[in-house]
Specification:
Layout (H helix, E strand, L loop, with lengths): L7 H8 L9 H10 L1 E5 L11 E11 L18 H7 L4 E12 L5 E11 L14 H6 L11 E3 L2 E5 L1 E5 L5 E4 L10 E11 L5 E9 L4 E7 L2 E6 H8 L4 H9 L6 H13 L8 H12 L11 H12 L7 H20 L13 E4 L1 H23 L9 H8 L4 H11 L17 E3 L5 H7 L2 E3 L2 H4 L31 E3 L4 E4 L8 H7 L11 H14 L9 E5 L9 E5 L4 E4 L5 H4 L4 E2 L12 E2 L9 H5 L8 H10 L18 E5 L7 E2 L1 H5 L9 E7 L11 E4 H5 L5 E10 L23 H6 L25 E10 L6 E4 L4 E8 L6 E2 L7 E3 L10 H16 L3 E2 L11 H11 L7 E5 L6 E15 L37 H9 L5 H8 L3 E7 L8 E3 L10 E3 L4 E2 L12 E3 L5 E3 L4 E7 H12 L12
Parallel strand pairs: 7-15, 21-22, 24-33, 25-32, 26-30
Antiparallel strand pairs: 1-2, 2-3, 3-4, 5-6, 6-14, 7-13, 8-9, 9-10, 10-11, 11-12, 15-16, 17-20, 18-19, 23-27, 25-35, 26-32, 27-28, 29-30, 29-35, 31-34, 34-35, 36-42, 37-38, 39-41, 40-41
Protein name: DNA-directed RNA polymerase subunit beta
Catalytic activity: RNA(n) + a ribonucleoside 5'-triphosphate = RNA(n+1) + diphosphate
GO cellular component, one term: DNA-directed RNA polymerase complex
C-alpha cells in the first residue's frame, strides 16, 4: 500500500477556515455602536448648559507590523514573527484612531491619535505571513505549513482559547433555585436569552416569574443588576394596549385558564404605575436610568428611555416591533414552563451552546477600551472648551495606549473590564500555545473550555457527556483529573461558522409553503423537511449553513416551534447539521443502519465523532475507553518533532526526538493531516514476557544495543535570556554592555571569544547592520542538551500503556527467536488483563505483518466487526509470510540458550518517549514549606516541595530489607509531631497545658477526665488543682503521657469528631 502524498496547502485548509472578509468590519461596526460623547463645560449644579463639545471615534486603522519610526537604519521596515520570537518581543502594530470633535455643533475637527501597539494574530489580514506560499514561509523562518491563529507576546506564543457560552438569540427556559434569591416573591422559574449585536458584543436578558404571577425583566449594566416590570418594557417598545398584549400572548389558547388568569393579573398590577402611553413610559424609564447611563443634560427623559431600549432590550433586533413580539413569545414560554406544559432547557447541552471565538472576544475588548478612552476625555473637560489649543492639551493628558492593555490581557489572560462583557469569568482566557510536539500544538486550536467559573462548582452535571454532543465534541479527548468534561475538543469534522448566513430569502420561502404568522404546528414537520431539501439543493436562496431546528409539540417536552439559526460561531458539521436541529432528527451512523421512512441523514464515516488525536489512536475501538483518554493526553506529552524551524525559535524549552519514524500501523487521517512531517515515536520490536524481574509494575526493559542505535534518543533545547537594561534605572546612561573591558584578560579567552564577549559565529556584516555598543544590551543563549534514555525515563505505547525504563539489558542476554530476532523492548504480561488494551495486541499483529510484507497497515477504528475480525485479517498475512497465525513465536533464553517453555507474543508496536525524564526531576530538600493543614511537605519541585514516597517506593524499600527507612521517610521527615494522650479515655483532643503556678511548671491534663472544682466532693490539695487559662479550676485528669504521631492523624481525629465519631487510643504502660 503506497503512502499518500502529502500536500502542505491541502493540510493548511484542513486545519483552519480562513476568513473571507479582508476588512476590519467588526471593529468598524463596534465604533459606530459606541456613538458620540457630548460634554458641557458648566458644572452639573448649573441651570444653563454652556458650550457643547461633541466627540466621537469616526474609524480605526490598523497597520501591519513594522520597525519603530525612531529606527532610521533598518532597510527592511517589515517585522516578521520569527524576529519577535528570537528577540522575545511582541508581534504588534500601530492602532490609529480617527477622532472627530466639534464645539456647539460647528465644523468637525479631525484628530488622528495613536492608540498604542496592539498584538497581531499570525496569518490574519494584518500579518505579513497571510498570503505567503510554503516556500516563502520557509524563507521567512517559519514552518512550511504555519497555521497561525495565535499571538506572540514577549516572545511567547499565546492563544485565546475558545469558550462555550449560551447560544445566541435563543430564549432558554431555566429552573434555577438561585433565581429565588432575587427578592421575597421571586421563584426558581426564568427565561434567559443572550442577545448578540452585529459587532459580536452581547447582552443577557432574563425574565423572572413571581409568586403572584407577575413577570420582571432583569439585565446587567456595568456589573450592576436592575429589575424592571416586563409590562413597562412592552409599553415602552411600541404604542400598544392591554388587548393587543393579551391576544399576543394567549393567541388561540383562550381556554387555558392558567395562562389567562396570570396574564390578567399581570395587566391589572401594572395599573399602579399609571403609565398609559408609550411616551409616558419612555419618560419614566429615562428618569429612573438617567444617572445610570450617564445621560447628558441636553437629552430628554424620552431620549434616555429610547437609549435604554436600544442598549439593553433584545439588542440583536433593530426594530422595536420585533422586540415586542419576541418579548411576548418569551412571556408565553415562561408561563408554559411554570404550568409544566414544557420542560426546562438544559444549559449544559450542546444544543443550547455556541463557541465564543478569540477574535470576537478580542474585538469586544478593543471596543470597550475605545469607549473608556472617550469617557476619560469627558472627565478631563474642566475649563473653556472654545479655546483652540484646549482639546490638544486634553488629548495629551489621556492615556490612550489601548495596545498595552491588550498585551496585558494576552500575557496574563485576565480581563479588566468595567462591564464584564457579559461573561462569567475574569481570568483564564489565554493559554500558552505550547509546542512540546505537533499533537499538542494543533490540540490548542481544537479545544473548547466551559469556563473557569464551572471548574469551582461542586456538581458534576456540567462535566457529563450528553447525547446532544454527538458529532460536535469528541467523547474521548478530554483530560483526566480536575478539568475532565470541562475542557473538550471539537470533532475533527466539526467546524465553527464564522460568517453569518444570509437569511433574507427565508420569509419568502416560508410564504411559498403556506406558513402564516400564527401558532400552527400541524405542518411544522413538512415545512422543516422541505426547507432542508431546498437548503441542500441550493434553491430558493437558502444558505447551505442555515440551521433548521424543528421542535415538535409534545407532552411536557421542549417548547415547540420552528427555529432558524444563521449566526456566527455555530457548531456546523460538514454534512450541514447543527446541534439544535440534530436533536430532533434521525441520523444513521452507517449505511447499514438506515431504515426506510425513519432516517433522513447518514454519517460519512463513524470516525467523524472523534477528534484529530483520538482518530490517530490505532484500533481504539478494541481498547477500554479510559486508555484511549490517556493516550490523547500522553500523545501531547511525547518528545516528538515540534517543528522544522527550530533554529529560529527561542522557546523556553523545546523537546525533539532525533530518531522519529513513521508508524507502520496508522489511521488514514495520519496521512491526510501530514503527520509524517512531525514524527512522534519509533517502531519497536516488543516481546510480552516476564523476564529478569525488572519488568514488574509497568516497568520495561530496553535492549542496550537498540539504545546505542538511537532508540528514543532525544534533545532538549533550553533558552536563557540576559538583559543588562534591567540592572539600571530608566533614564540612566548605559554603563554595561557585552564585550571585553579595559582590564587584562587571559589570551586563551580571547582566542575563543570575540570582542563582544561572545563566541565567534563568522557572520558577514553588511551595510545597514547595527554596530553600536548601545544595542548590545540583551542576549539570548540557546543550549542544546542531549538526552539519551536513562533508567527512570518514561515511555508509552499508543494505547495508554505507560511505563518507565527499569534496565538496559545487554543484547547478548536478551531472548531471541528462531530467526534471530531480538526485541527492543520487553514488557510484562500483567500490563494487559486489567487494562484490556486489546488494540495493542492487534497493533502488534498488524505491525509484524506490515514489516514482513513492507506495507503500511490501516488502523482506522470500526473497520472490523464480529464476522471480519482483525485476528483473521492480519493472521492470514502472517501465515503467508511463514509466521504463526496468532503472532506467537518460540524464544530462547539469552543467558542459557535454552528454549523458553511457552510461546512468546512478539510483534512491532509504535512507542513514544514522553517528556518526563529523570534529569528534569532530580530534587533535594532538607527542610522547607509545609502544608498548614496537615503539616506535611508541600508538593512540587518549583515550590521546594518534598518527594512523595508512594506504594512502589515502599515495596522497593521492603524488598531491599530496609523497612525501617519507611519510618524515617513517612514520619520523621514528614509530619512528625509530639502530642499528649490521656491513658484513661484514650483521647488526643481533650488534653491541654495547664496555667503554670508560681514556683512550679506547667503540666498536661485531660479536660474530659478532670472534674470541675465546684463539683468535686472530696478534699483536693493545692498541688492537685489546675487552671485551664479561662479562670476555671479542675481536679484530676493527670493520667496523660506524650507520644509521637504523624500530625495528619490529629487532623483526621478532629475531622471525625466533627461528625460525631470518636477515636480512642490504647496506650501501653510505661
Amino acid at each position: 500500500m503506497a503512502l499518500a502524498q502529502f500536500n502542505t496547502l491541502e493540510t493548511d485548509k484542513r486545519f483552519k477556515n480562513p476568513p473571507k472578509d479582508d476588512s476590519s468590519g467588526l471593529l468598524n461596526l463596534a465604533v459606530k455602536d459606541i456613538g458620540s460623547k457630548t460634554i458641557f463645560d458648566t458644572p452639573e449644579t448649573s441651570t444653563r448648559l454652556g458650550n457643547k463639545l461633541k466627540i466621537r471615534v469616526e474609524s480605526v486603522q490598523l497597520a501591519k507590523p513594522s520597525v519603530p519610526a525612531n529606527d532610521k537604519l533598518s532597510l527592511n521596515r517589515k517585522t516578521f514573527p520569527s524576529e519577535c520570537r528570537e528577540r522575545m518581543v511582541t508581534y504588534r502594530s500601530r492602532l490609529m484612531l480617527n477622532v472627530t470633535w466639534s464645539v456647539n455643533d460647528g465644523e468637525e475637527v479631525l484628530e488622528i491619535r495613536e492608540a498604542g501597539q496592539i498584538p497581531i494574530m499570525l496569518k490574519s489580514n494584518r500579518c505579513h505571513l497571510e498570503k505567503l506560499t510554503p516556500n516563502q514561509l520557509v524563507e521567512a523562518k517559519e514552518e512550511s505549513d504555519e497555521l497561525g491563529g495565535y499571538f506572540i507576546v514577549n516572545g511567547i506564543e499565546k492563544l485565546i482559547r475558545m469558550l462555550i457560552v449560551q447560544r445566541r438569540n435563543h430564549p432558554m427556559a431555566l429552573i434555577r433555585p438561585s433565581f429565588g434569591n432575587r427578592g421575597a416573591s421571586y421563584t426558581k422559574y426564568g427565561i434567559q436569552i443572550r442577545c448578540v449585536r452585529p459587532d459580536q458584543t452581547s447582552q443577557t436578558n432574563v425574565l423572572h416569574y413571581l409568586n403572584d404571577g407577575n413577570v420582571t425583566f432583569r439585565f446587567s449594566w456595568k456589573k450592576n443588576e436592575y429589575l424592571v416590570p416586563v409590562m413597562m418594557i412592552l409599553k415602552a417598545l411600541v404604542e400598544t394596549n392591554d388587548r393587543e398584549i393579551f391576544d399576543g400572548i394567549v393567541g388561540n389558547d383562550t381556554g387555558n385558564s392558567f395562562l389567562t388568569d396570570r396574564l390578567e393579573l399581570l395587566l391589572r398590577t401594572y395599573k399602579k404605575y399609571n403609565l398609559n402611553s408609550q411616551q409616558e413610559t419612555l419618560a419614566y424609564l429615562g428618569d429612573k436610568f438617567r444617572v445610570v447611563f450617564g445621560a447628558t443634560p441636553d437629552m430628554s427623559d424620552i431620549d434616555v428611555g429610547k437609549e435604554v431600549l436600544k442598549r439593553i432590550v433584545l439588542v440583536h433586533l433593530p426594530d422595536n416591533a420585533d422586540k415586542f413580539r419576541m418579548l411576548l413569545f418569551m412571556i408565553r414560554k415562561l408561563y408554559s414552563l411554570v404550568a409544566g406544559d414544557c420542560a426546562p432547557d438544559n444549559p449544559d447541552a450542546t444544543q443550547h451552546q455556541e463557541v465564543l471565538l478569540g477574535g470576537f472576544l478580542y474585538g469586544m475588548i478593543i471596543k470597550e477600551k475605545i469607549e473608556e478612552y472617550l469617557q476619560n476625555i469627558k472627565l478631563q473637560i474642566q475649563s473653556d472648551i472654545t479655546v483652540v489649543w484646549y482639546m490638544t492639551r486634553v488629548f495629551l493628558r489621556i492615556n490612550e495606549n489601548i495596545g498595552q492593555k491588550l498585551q496585558y490581557f494576552l500575557s496574563t489572560g485576565n480581563l479588566v473590564s468595567q462591564s464584564g462583557l457579559d461573561l462569567q469569568q475574569v481570568s483564564g482566557y489565554t493559554v500558552v500555545a505550547e509546542k512540546i510536539n505537533f499533537y499538542r500544538f494543533i490540540s490548542h486550536f481544537r479545544m473548547v473550555h466551559r469556563g473557569s467559573f464551572f471548574a469551582e462548582l461542586k456538581t458534576t452535571t456540567v462535566r457529563k457527556l450528553l447525547p446532544e454532543s454527538w458529532g460536535f465534541l469528541c467523547p474521548v479527548h478530554t483530560p483526566d483529573g480536575s478539568p475532565c468534561g470541562l475542557l473538550n475538543h471539537l470533532s475533527h469534522k466539526c467546524k465553527i461558522a464564522t460568517v453569518a448566513s444570509d437569511v433574507s430569502q427565508v420569509p419568502k420561502a416560508l410564504t411559498q409553503l403556506g406558513v402564516l404568522p400564527a401558532d400552527s404546528f400541524a405542518a411544522g414537520k413538512i415545512v422543516a423537511d422541505t426547507l432542508r431539501f431546498w437548503k441542500v439543493e441550493g434553491s430558493h436562496g437558502l444558505p447551505l449553513d442555515l440551521e433548521i431546528g424543528y421542535v415538535p409539540p409534545s407532552n411536557k417536552g421542549q417548547y415547540p416551534g420552528l427555529y432558524l439559526f444563521g449566526g456566527h460561531s455555530k457548531n456546523d458539521e460538514t454534512n450541514i447539521l447543527g446541534p439544535f436541529e440534530q436533536v430532533y432528527m434521525n441520523v444513521a451512523v452507517t449505511p447499514e443502519e438506515i431504515e426506510n421512512n425513519v432516517h433522513s441523514h447518514v454519517e460519512f464515516t463513524p470516525t467523524n465523532i472523534l477528534s484529530i488525536l483520538a482518530n490517530l489512536t490505532p484500533f481504539s475501538d478494541f481498547n477500554q475507553s479510559p486508555r484511549n483518554m490517556y493516550q490523547c493526553q500522553m500523545g501531547k506529552q511525547t518528545m516528538g518533532t515540534p517543528g522544522t524551524a527550530l533554529v529560529h525559535r527561542s522557546d523556553n524549552k523545546l523537546y525533539r526526538l532525533q530518531t522519529g519514524q513513521t508508524p507502520i500501523v496508522k489511521a488514514n487521517l495520519y496521512d491526510d493531516y501530514g503527520m509524517d512531517n512531525f514524527p512522534n515515536g519509533m517502531n519497536a520490536i516488543v516481546a510480552v514476557i516476564s523476564y529478569t524481574g525488572y519488568d514488574m509494575d509497568d516497568a520495561m526493559i530496553i535492549n542496550k544495543s537498540a539504545d546505542e542505535r538511537g532508540f528514543g534518543y532525544g534533545t532538549v533545547y533550553k533558552t536563557e535570556k540576559i538583559d543588562l537594561s534591567q540592572s539600571r534605572r530608566r533614564g540612566d546612561p548605559i554603563t554595561q554592555h557585552f564585550g571585553f573591558g579595559s582590564d587584562e584578560w587571559p589570551e586563551a579567552w580571547k582566542e575563543k571569544l570575540d570582542a563582544d564577549g561572545l563566541p565567534m559565529i563568522g557572520v558577514k556584516v553588511e551595510a545597514g547592520d547595527e554596530t553600536s555598543d548601545q544595542e548590545g544590551q540583551q542576549l539570548t543563549i540557546k543550549y542544546r542538551i542531549t538526552r539519551a534514555p536513562l533508567i527512570g525515563d518514561k515511555f508509552s505505547s499508543r494505547h495508554g500503556q505507560k511505563g518507565v525504563c527499569s534496565r538496559k539489558w545487554p543484547q547478548i542476554d536478551m531472548p531471541f527467536t528462531e530467526s534471530g530476532m531480538q526485541p527492543d523492548v520487553i514488557i510484562n504480561p500483567h500490563a494487559f488483563p486489567s487494562r484490556m488494551t486489546i488494540g495493542m495486541f492487534v497493533e502488534s499483529l498488524a505491525g509484524k505483518a506490515g514489516a514482513l510484507h513492507g506495507i503500511a497497515q490501516d488502523s482506522t477504528p470500526w473497520k472490523f466487526n464480529e464476522q471480519d475480525t482483525p485476528a483473521d485479517y492480519f493472521g492470514e498475512q502472517l501465515l503467508k509470510a511463514g509466521y504463526n497465525y496468532h503472532g506467537n513465536e518460540p524464544m530462547y533464553s539469552g543467558a542459557t540458550g535454552e528454549e523458553l517453555r511457552c510461546d512468546i507474543y512478539i510483534g512491532c508496536v509504535y512507542y513514544q518517549r514522553l517528556r518526563h525524564m529523570v534529569n528534569d526531576k532530580f530534587q533535594v530538600r532538607s527542610t522547607g514549606p509545609v502544608n498548614s493543614l496537615t503539616m506535611q511537605p508541600v508538593k512540587g519541585r518549583k515550590r521546594s516541595g518534598g518527594i512523595r514516597v508512594g506504594e512502589m517506593e515502599r515495596d522497593a524499600l521492603i524488598g531491599h530489607g530496609t523497612s525501617f527507612l519507611l519510618q524515617d521517610r513517612l514520619l520523621n521527615c514528614s509530619d512528625y509531631t509530639q502530642t499528649s494522650v490521656c491513658r484513661s479515655c484514650g483521647s488526643i483532643l481533650t488534653t491541654q497545658t495547664t496555667v503554670p503556678r508560681i514556683g512550679s511548671m506547667a503540666s498536661i491534663r485531660c479536660r474530659r477526665c478532670a472534674v470541675s472544682l465546684d463539683k468535686y466532693d472530696g478534699y483536693a490539695a493545692d498541688a492537685d488543682i489546675w487552671e485551664d487559662g479561662q479562670g476555671k479550676k479542675f481536679v484530676g485528669g493527670d493520667d496523660t503521657t506524650t507520644v509521637a504521631i504523624p500530625f495528619v492523624l490529629k487532623y483526621l481525629d478532629s475531622e471525625l469528631s466533627a461528625m460525631g465519631i470518636k477515636m480512642k487510643y490504647n496506650v501501653e504502660p510505661r
